[in-house]
Design goal:
mainly alpha; 73% helix; 0% strand
């Protein structure tokens, strides 16, 4: 593997690891102190991604999420082969994070919180959950393109802040209904380690669909529309 590709893969693995480790840990902490609010969990998830985008975004682009990478694929911003490397790194990083959370925290807590695995809230059906995850991920990927891909974006220099805030507000709304994963690797790690697969497809189909729609919308409606139209050649003389 070329050194540049290895650096990108490790950066993506670290970013995905951080989100799952902090996300699952924040859920466990909230359970331990009997805090039913989502404010701490939302802030933890948002800050985890925000700081990782600032620290490693210049190396790999700061995807840390298979749905974001998929959006880059459909918008032709990344080659499929490199995207495959990203996906493996992201899933591996998340799985390792879930395994370590299970290893270092008391078993009674990790069993009660199921390692922070996303789940449907009371009364939320699988179809509704999938749509919610798609919409929440749409917001996230749209902000990624606007803040980190589009060089005209006013927040380009602080893309991590914009992306982190988006994750936080998504968790505040979607947390009680779907867990607001917005990220297949964030779901995969706890699902694999804890063997919790109930309605697991929701956190793959929804984010990939939402990410693809957001990427295509931004690419073809905003980015391409902003490209200057070439001046016609003038006749000589």
């Amino acid at each position: 593997m070329p050194k540049d590709t290895l650096q990108r893969a490790v950066a993506e693995a670290i970013g995905a690891f951080t989100l799952t480790f902090i996300g699952a840990g924040a859920a466990a902490a909230a359970y331990t102190v009997h805090d039913p609010s989502l404010i701490g969990v939302a802030i933890a998830n948002g800050l985890a991604i925000g700081v990782m985008v600032c620290a490693l975004g210049h190396i790999s682009g700061g995807h840390f999420n298979p749905a974001v990478t998929f959006g880059f694929v459909v918008a032709r911003k990344i080659k499929p082969a490199l995207a495959g490397v990203y996906w493996v790194a992201q899933l591996a990083g998340a799985a390792l994070a879930a395994l370590l959370v299970k290893s270092v925290l008391p078993g009674s807590i990790t069993e009660a919180t199921k390692l922070g695995v996303p789940a449907l809230g009371n009364g939320v059906g699988p179809g509704s959950g999938m749509v919610l995850e798609a919409i929440l991920t749409f917001f996230l990927v749209l902000v990624v393109f606007g803040a980190a891909v589009d060089t005209r974006g006013p927040f380009n220099a602080v893309a991590g802040l914009a992306i982190g805030i988006t994750i936080a507000i998504d968790v505040l709304f979607g947390g009680p209904f779907t867990g607001a994963a917005m990220n297949p690797s964030r779901a995969f790690g706890p699902q694999l380690v804890g063997d919790h697969w109930s309605h697991g497809w929701i956190w793959y189909v929804g984010p990939l669909l939402g990410g693809a729609v957001a990427a295509l919308l931004y690419q073809f409606l905003f980015l391409r529309a902003a490209e200057p139209t070439p001046e016609p050649d003038l006749p000589a003389g």
